[in-house]
Structures are given as C-alpha cells and as structure tokens.
Design brief:
The protein starts with a strand and ends with a strand. It is globular and about 50 Å long. It is built from eight helices and twelve strands. The chain has one domain (about 5-285): LigB-like (Protocatechuate 4,5-dioxygenase, Chain B). By secondary structure, it is of the alpha/beta class. The longest helix has 17 residues, at about 155-170. The protein has a six-stranded mixed sheet, with helices on both faces. Strands 3-6 form a two-stranded parallel sheet. Helix 3 (about 100-110) crosses helix 5 (about 155-170) and helix 6 (about 205-220) runs antiparallel to helix 7 (about 225-235).
C-alpha cells in the first residue's frame, strides 16, 4: 500500500534561477532565503525517503481535464517563453512515474472526475516543474499534475482526492510538492520598489495581499486547513493565489481536504517576487 510521507508548499519563481551575483545585488547584499530554504526542504525530503515526488504544477494550465504526465523519462533543455532573456538553457533529466499517472486516471474514471494520463511524447515542460527538479536536486521519480483552469475550488479538492487514492493503491512512497505562490498579483511593468531589498515583503503587490498571506501562513502553521479550504471560494480565489490555488488545493485534497490537520513548518522567510507572495512550508505526511 502506498503512502504520502510528506508534502510542501514550495516557491518556483524564476528569479531564483538567476545567478547568485545578481540575486545578491537585487537582495541589497543578501540572497533570497528561498535559496537556503531549498536545502532545508531537501533535508526533510531525504528524511522521509520517498521514491516518487508529485509536483502540482501551477503553470501547467489545462482546460476541461486534470492531467497526469505519464511519460517514463524526461530530458532536454528548457527555455521559458515568458522570460527567455535569463531563464534559458536549463538542462533537465529525470524519471517519470507512468504507473502512478495511469492509476490516477483509473481512479478518476471510477469517481466521475475528469482526469487523464497524458502520454504524448512531445508534451512540453513548465518551469514550475523544471525549476523545482533542479533546485531540489530531485532524483526520485516525478509525476507532474496539471492545474485545470476552469475548475472551482471544490473540483481541485476532488482531483486531490483522486491523487490520494491512487497513491494508496500503489506501492509508492510519495512527497507532494505544491509548486506555486500564495497571492499572485504582479507589479506593473514600470513599478518602483518600495524597499531596496527586492525580496522584502514590503514589495508585495499590496499591503492587503501581504497581510492576507501572513494570516494564511499562520493558519497553515496551526494545521487549520479547514479554515483555508472554507475561505478559498470567497477570499483566496479572489486575491487570487497562484493558479487559483489549484496547487495547494490538490495537495491538501490528497491529504484529507478540510479534515487535514498537518501543521506547516516554515522553511523560508516570506518573500516578494514581482509582487507575488512566496514561501516554502513543509507538512508531515
């Protein structure tokens, strides 16, 4: 019987892929704490010894279906169409988890959830997966799960339930990584930063969004996923969280939904990235 041995909310923002020299300059002499946070998260992952990492990819936008990437192996050289002037020539080479993808489709069909294992060999990569694989030195098998953009919060939770059941029916030891930000409102193109350290929360898109993020972090630290889930349709979806919160909702759906009480351990400072709110948080399985 398979199990979820740990989970995390993890930032993937592209600025973390720039050189240390550039990050230090933008950080007013101090690097982003999310960089050190990747090391802390890797330690938590190593401690629970997974064989599979499921990445809930907030950049893999799909329509009409939740998709599970069923490739057996992925290799290539990633270039971002969003910001190719610096997020380019990122080599990747990692194993997939096709059996788990197929199991997700089977459970989805049983439960009347629109979920499919995607098998096309030319399916593109997204940096919400590639950046995480690189930053966490992931050598385990990887299953990327899409973010279906025409879903309500409840449908993301049901997708997570499918994932959780498929894991239980497998023999896999799984860590779930919800790859994305909290509040996700970008600063305008000609925005002038308020704090000389670009990563400082003072530079988040609005004081209201930063306050909402901090409140959500406190609730997650207490394991109050029920409050977060209940607030999603009226609060966090309207801010909105990245990808309408699909990365988090699918993660927590796999862990019991609003009944989940796993407390969150903060593994980084709360930081700004182009107006968005970012943090790494770990949850025991």
């Amino acid at each position: 019987m398979g199990s979820i041995v740990g989970a995390a909310l993890v930032s993937h923002h592209p600025g973390l892929m720039q050189s240390e020299e550039f990050r230090l300059k933008m950080g007013n002499g101090r690097d982003s704490d999310l960089i050190a946070g990747f090391g802390r998260l890797r330690e938590r992952i190593d401690a629970v010894k997974p064989d599979t990492v499921v990445i809930l990819d907030s950049h893999w936008f799909t329509t009409g279906y939740h998709l599970y990437d069923a490739g057996a192996h992925f290799s290539g050289n990633y270039v971002s169409d969003e910001m190719p002037w610096y997020l380019h020539d990122q080599p990747y080479d990692y194993r997939g988890a096709p059996e788990l993808a197929a199991a997700c489709q089977a459970v989805a069909e049983e439960r009347g959830v629109k979920g499919l294992a995607a098998t096309h060999p030319l399916l593109p990569r997204h940096y919400a997966t590639v950046n995480i694989v690189k930053s966490l030195n992931i050598h385990e098998k990887v299953l990327s799960v899409s973010n279906c953009q025409n879903c309500q919060s409840e449908e993301f939770l049901r997708s997570g339930e499918v994932l959780g059941e498929a894991i239980r029916r497998s023999d896999a030891r799984v860590v779930l990584l919800a790859s994305g930000a909290l509040s996700h409102k970008f600063s305008d193109i000609n925005w002038v930063q308020k704090n000389p350290r670009i990563f400082d929360p003072e530079n988040v898109s609005s004081p209201e969004n930063a306050a909402s993020d901090r409140e959500a972090i406190a609730l997650l630290q207490e394991g109050r996923h029920d409050v977060i889930v209940d607030r999603f349709p009226t609060v966090y979806r309207k801010i909105p969280w990245e990808g309408l919160g699909g990365h988090y909702l699918q993660m927590v759906g796999a862990m019991g939904g609003r009944d989940c009480r796993a407390p969150g351990e903060t593994l980084s400072e709360y930081e700004n990235a182009r107006g968005t709110g970012n943090i790494h948080m770990w949850f025991e399985g």
